[in-house]
């Protein structure tokens, strides 16, 4: 009953005889515990996190539910292997558009070895991690029944510049995404990024927690943005989601805030809010140009 | 009329025939333009900053006024040298307690050379820069007429740990600072860190700007905290001050917020607000223990 996840946009894929995560039909995601200690560190994080009463409920919803670990046949045929059993956060979406954004202007942590730090630093400098405080680690964009998904390859993703990131954050919420970056209409920005349940409000809620919490430092952790473009187009009340994933490099905060994650999060917030305010401005312009005697509503429509 | 600044707590000192800044009696500070281009970069920053209309007035007050540059006899006897002419921000204080805090979890910038980056990174890892997002670069603490100033030496400052930083932020606003770190009473915390014109409010005002501004990235820049302990003790209305200094490594923001500075600033804010809330808690305890039928006021006194 286990299969390769259809909508995995980053990380190791369980294809071509390789080791990777699996999913079942009941909404669970099985992530193999990596042998170098990372897997156990991630399991330990989930155990500590799920029982930590200092984490408020409105923050807990940004993390996948963890159901412990389980011995399973590994996807690479190497036999039984411990897997972390998590909520499959994609399973509730039909045609999910997903962005995996690794947060922080460094992916290494002070306690790591010199070799590990140099390796991470090199990649952080090569990508937008150092300059932006985050990098896109993978994405898929549902473009419609005919075109299917746009999912750039790993090499393309790793070469994204600041300019590309800005374009993709626009293209991600555009109805004409397949036409090309320059002409993105950002018509879904008000309903995906904006609004009281939108991505921006969720990012701000996370930010408020990160300004205060000194329990964990989330190195090399990803923030997923997920939504269903089709249900948005049809005006149904599908809520865009944010989830944090990948906790193999979480360390204790020891009374200090996670300023590395927080800085990157604030940078992402600035980018998202710019897309949103640009889209509002252009709909005001559209209203004016169409000579409708109206005001633009919050979701960018003319009244 | 030029002399060596009495209250310089970090940077090159103009003593023993060395090159360093000078001050005069009219409240001006003369900083020699370093020959490796840094001096000119700092001058260029001040010129760009002072004419940039995007910088709001309530933020401008956190920067020293710049009066251009001037040829002066250098302090090391090497002859005439261009000096940056700045407001001497210490001159308005009689017995200033000063802390120089270098903000950011990295002091290098992406465009720098590999050698420079490695040199900075090493120091950032050796100090609290990486772990805290800031490091104390120097300080002096006025302890009273008899004891004068406590000013730890450069080596001591460079070896400050997270624990030391937390102690010093308490000791900085204590009336019994000379007794030792453990017993700091933090009795000045409500009037220095707290209140509507206090350090915490000023830090929050700066933070709001850094969440939005994408003009400059302030690498290796310092935030000074200054106040007169004597006037606070006497209850006079001396306002604690924040100034940003050292702009030789400022680069263009290119539409991205300075997430490195912002993250460190948020970390400092958390530390300062913890000292403040601890001091409030202990004065409530004092009120209760003294059985005064009162409430604690915002400045930590019993009513």
From TrEMBL, chains A, B:
Keyword terms: ATP-binding, Kinase, Nucleotide-binding, Transferase
Any one GO BP annotation for this protein: inositol phosphate biosynthetic process
InterPro entries: IPK (IPR005522), IPK_sf (IPR038286)
Keyword field contains Calcium: no
Entry's EC annotation: 2.7.1.140, 2.7.1.151
Catalytic activity as recorded in UniProt: 1D-myo-inositol 1,4,5-trisphosphate + 2 ATP = 1D-myo-inositol 1,3,4,5,6-pentakisphosphate + 2 ADP + 2 H(+); 1D-myo-inositol 1,3,4,6-tetrakisphosphate + ATP = 1D-myo-inositol 1,3,4,5,6-pentakisphosphate + ADP + H(+)
Example of a GO MF term: ATP binding
Lyase keyword on record: no
GO CC, one annotated term: cytoplasm
Source organism, top-level taxon: Eukaryota
Transmembrane segments: none
Protein family membership: Belongs to the inositol phosphokinase (IPK) family.
The protein's role, per its UniProt record: Inositol phosphate kinase with a broad substrate specificity.
Protein name listed in UniProt: Inositol polyphosphate multikinase
Lineage, highest ranks first: Eukaryota, Viridiplantae, Streptophyta, Embryophyta, Tracheophyta
